[in-house]
Amino acid sequence: MTTTPAETPAEELLPATRRALLHAIATAQTEGRAPSLVAAVVRSGRTVWHGSRTSVDGHGPDENVQYRIGSITKTFTAVLVMRLRDEGVLDLGDPLEKHLPGTGAGEATIAQLLAHTAGLAAESPGPWWERTPGSLRPELADVLGEQPHRHPAGRRFHYSNPGYTLLGALVEEVRGAPWEDVLRSEVLEPLGLHRTSGQPQAPHAGGWAVHPWADVLLPEPSEDLGRMAPAGQLWSTSGDLARFAVFLTRGDDRVLSAESVREMRTPSAPAEVEEVAAGAAYGLGMQVLHRDGRTLAGHGGSLPGFLAGLMISVQDDLAAVVLANCTSGPPVSAVAADLVRIVAEAEPRIPEPWRPLPEVDRSLLELAGPWYWGTHAFALRLTADGDVTLGPLAGNGRRSRFRGGDDGTWTGLDGYYAGELLRAVEGPDGSVTHLDLGSFVFTRQPYGEGAPVPGGVDPEGWRGIK
């Protein structure tokens, strides 16, 4: 029986799409000269494609072969910290010293450490920490060094591996257990990530360096990073990371709510000029990118011998994972973004059917429609999820979603009015005279006669010019 696109099962991709995905990773493995490369694509919460390429005769790696994932580890550490925040154990605005005194990190806050704005150095002092044993840095003081700061806290984004070492130490201090044990019990086991671990577990790929000017290989050492583990220790598989991508898209109340993972995907760090031009930002343990007209969130990772990339497009309900076992080679995060683009363009997401609200507050319904801030025309709309939106009738401008509270006010969720209060103001007769939004007055008519507009309205009203 021939099926229409709407009837095609969500887990299937069209043959042309699958070939385009295979072509993309084959090109990346060949041009990047990677000993092996494995990838997965997730759509609508399921892994819908898996592919691999290898320089070794026989079967390529499957979704159960471990690779080292480098700094994608930071996203796992950030999830643990966000759990502590959601439990009320700490606040992201707390100085680290409040919960982990004596680190030498000054007044850097937990949020600043998550967003790489604490001003700490990018790397640990001493020999290259990624290629030397963690026993060389047994204490936090060894990780931070005598001069841990490079910039004033909160002033600029400066990626810091030691910063995530501190966050891992914070988790250990609060939970009273090793970072990896906490991660396993609170994140890996609930999400079913049984092939993610601090040490390699067979089957796993070996790490290689590929000579830049010759097609020859050199094995890379695989060191236990010790104190630096929360910044880059983990090994994982394309299968596990695909499941992790689903969690980072939708949340899981056993681990972290959808609202909290959305917060992680929200830019939190001031971007450098080059990053603004490149469409790059950083949230709370997640990178945020703008590519091909869509917003992507995720993280890249690298350690000697390995490259890793995980990218999510929430608007397309798509994610991709790419792993390779070489020190330098294919741009795996860019390849992951390209895999998302291929599926999104070849097989666009079919929207959910429109459905009306099951019920509506008639007093709220009366607020829907056009409002004017001065002469700027806006529209207030009720949405199927129970929120309201306020935005320009045409063109670009200040547009936000609002969620209602028990006191009759509405709080901005995003955009210019994020965190601002919207309230309907009633006159003596009980009818709504205007909307107040952070002191801005929205009226039913532009500068309507008798409207409570700051500065007043000229009594002669609107006029022409002869």
Descriptive terms for the model:
single chain, 466 residues, alpha+beta, 8-stranded antiparallel beta sheet, 7-stranded antiparallel beta sheet
Provide structural commentary:
Helices cover 26% and strands 21% of the residues. The chain has helices spanning 15-31, 72-86, 96-99, 110-114, 140-144, 161-175, 179-191, 229-232, 238-250, 258-264, 273-278, 332-346, 362-365, and strands at 36-43, 46-54, 67-68, 208-210, 217-219, 235-236, 280-282, 287-291, 294-303, 306-313, 318-324, 369-373, 376-382, 388-392, 400-404, 410-412, 421-426, 432-437, 440-442. An eight-stranded antiparallel beta sheet has the order 12-13-14-15-16-17-18-19, with no helix packed on it. The longest helix is centred in the N-terminal third of the chain and has 17 residues, at 15-31. Mean pLDDT is 92; it is low at 1-9. Helix 1 packs antiparallel against helix 12, helix 2 packs across helix 6 and helix 2 crosses helix 7 (179-191). It has 13 helices and 19 strands. It is α+β, with helices and mostly antiparallel strands.
